[in-house]
Amino acid sequence: MTSAPDGPPGAALGSLELAALRARQRAQQIEEELARDPSRFRVLTGERPTGPLHLGHLFGTVENRVRLQRSGVDTLLVVADYQVITDRDVAGDVRGAVREVVLDYLAAGLDPELTTIFTHSAVPALHQLLLPFLSLVTVAELDRNPTVKAELAATGGRALTGLLLTYPVHQAADILFCRANLVPVGRDQLPHLETTRTIARRFNQRYAGAEPFFPEPDALLSTAPVVLGTDGAKMSKSAGNAIALGADTDTTVRAIRSARTDGDRHITYEPQRRPEVANLLLLTGLCTGRTPQEVAEDIGGRGAGVLKSLLADALLDYLAPLRARRAELAADPQVVHDVLTRGNARANELADETIREVRRLMRMLL
Ligand code: ATP
Ligand code: MG
Fold first, then answer.
1. Could you tell me which of 77, 79, 71 has the C-alpha nearest to residue 40?
2. Is residue 124 part of a domain?
3. pLDDT digits (tens, 9 = 90+) for 339-348
4. Residues 65-117: tens digit of each pLDDT
5. Which of 15, 110, 321, 329 has its CA 20 to 30 A from that of 53?
6. 79 alpha carbon to ligand 1 midpoint, in Å?
């Protein structure tokens, strides 16, 4: 591959900072457009079934999805089962992990009457989009993706597979198969979304003529775009630093007590200088409807121990209805199967329609 289709390689894919800046600038406009006409939007987002969902998911993206779903936005969620093997050889019990993720969705308020929930591997036409999409990016562009680099680093010295390198292209297929234009995600996903925007733009330029076929989707960040785990790094299913939505009381309290803080007893909200303390304050604020600054002022010189007990109480209260609902749903062996059967059928209809249009635009239809 020698050059990018619409300019020199490197010119098109922006940095994480630029993408975060644009997402922040667009946020207000998106909210206004959403209030005016939610039917203009289609949401696609999702998770890899690599473990149960955690607080990073809830506050980083899931609560935004519930809000969008309730305001009438057509919402689709992919449980990206093929992407489990991007950074590991052994997929493990994928079916069990998919079930956990779907239970978490339902318990958090995602309603299968309003939201389409499907598994990646059940929608073959979605993956067919990878072929034209792969031709629209260079290896040099993929090589620069900071999230792929971080995920590779987290594997502890594994070689970079073709699947991990092309993960952002796969994600472009996940988003564009249903022509979604809004993607509620955590900040780690912004570089991937840049790739999706680039692919959509280049496909349109190359094949679509005057009328763009694919939208260039916007990211929608929450007020907690990077929730930190107990070790101070990004909370992540694979890092052993997460507080799962479905965890029991003891595990939750123990995890909060073990969370890293700093040596300064006086509690202040300073996300740059004191990220771990700021994270605990933010979580407490989110659970109690207060700002992190207010929580910090309440605690003052009483130290991180008091902050942690406040968070534990607030979080247990906040999650109690979700956890009760989750336990009820988990007792029904049929519920996840039914949700996915229905979701997979709709996702297949949309994907078949899109790949047919793509083939028509590429002049491949008979
Ligand atoms: P893994 O360790 O397997 O990559 P993960 O915990 O990073 O799992 P993903 O399935 O990769 O979770 O992410 C799903 C969605 O949740 C993405 O939109 C991602 O940005 C968001 N998300 C995940 N972790 C956090 C977090 N700590 N803070 C905010 N958003 C998050
Ligand atoms: Mg991840």
1. 71
2. yes
3. 999 999 999 9
4. 999 999 999 999 999 999 999 888 877 899 999 999 999 999 999 999 999 99
5. 15
6. 12
Q: Which of 358, 349, 363, 347 is nearest to 81 (CA)?
A: 347
Residue 2 confidence (pLDDT) above 50: no
Query: Which strands form 42-47's sheet, in the order they lie side by side?
Result: 115-119, 74-79, 42-47, 182-184, 218-220
- The total number of structural domains in the chain stands at 2
Residue 188 burial (CB count, 10 A):
18
Tens digit of pLDDT for each residue in 9-40? Answer: 344 445 677 778 888 888 889 999 999 999 99
121-131 pLDDT, tens per residue?
A: 999 999 999 99
Ligand 1 neighbour 226 (Cβ under 6 A): yes
Q: Domain holding 316: CATH number?
A: 1.10.240.10
Q: Does ligand 1 lie within 6 Å of residue 235's CB atom?
A: yes
61, part of any domain:
yes
Global confidence as pTM: 0.91
Per-residue pLDDT reduced to its tens digit, 167-212: 999 999 999 999 999 999 988 889 889 999 999 999 999 999 899 9
- Whether residue 21 is contained in a domain is answered as yes
Is beta strand 182-184 parallel, antiparallel or unpaired with respect to 115-119? unpaired
- Whether residues 296 and 350 share a domain: the answer is no
User: Ligand 1 centre from 65 Cα, in Å?
Assistant: 14
What pLDDT does residue 12 have? Answer: 44
Give me ligand 2 centre to Cα 207, in Å.
Answer: 32
Pick the residue whose CA is nearest to atom 9 on ligand 1: 47
Which residues, other chains included, contact 108 with Cβ-Cβ below 8 Å and sequence gap of 6+? 53, 58, 62, 63, 66, 245, 322
Residues 58, 158, single domain; the answer is: yes
Q: How far apart are CA 75 and CA 343, in angstroms?
A: 11
Pocket residue to mutate for ligand 1, from 50, 54, 57, most atoms within 8 A of Cβ:
57
Q: Would you say residue 31 lies in a domain?
A: yes
Residues 57 and 74 in one domain: yes
pLDDT at 122: 98
- 157, two tokens: 């010295």
